[in-house]
Write a structure and sequence with these properties.
Elements (H helix, E strand, L loop, with lengths): L9 E3 L18 E4 L14 E4 L7 E2 L5
Parallel strand pairs: 1-2, 2-3
Antiparallel strand pairs: 3-4
Length: 66
């Protein structure tokens, strides 16, 4: 077997992101990490994955969570 390469693009939500951007579906989906002490953005997250570090067990929401 050859080496496996995994590339992940991740954004950190901060106080300047009051709601999720529109159109985050398919190839435009992303992953967001909500740091401790920062409120989660509101709105429709589309197909993005959200790791909210304010919730128990760093709650993961979205299609990539299992």
């Amino acid at each position: 077997m050859g080496d496996v390469k995994l590339e992940v693009a991740c954004s950190f939500a901060d106080r300047n992101l009051p709601q999720f951007p529109e159109g985050l579906y398919g190839g435009n989906s992303a992953a967001f990490v909500v740091p401790v002490g920062t409120p989660a953005p509101t709105g429709n997250p589309g197909h993005i994955t959200v790791h909210d570090l304010n919730k128990p067990s760093s709650t993961c929401q979205g299609p990539m969570c299992r």
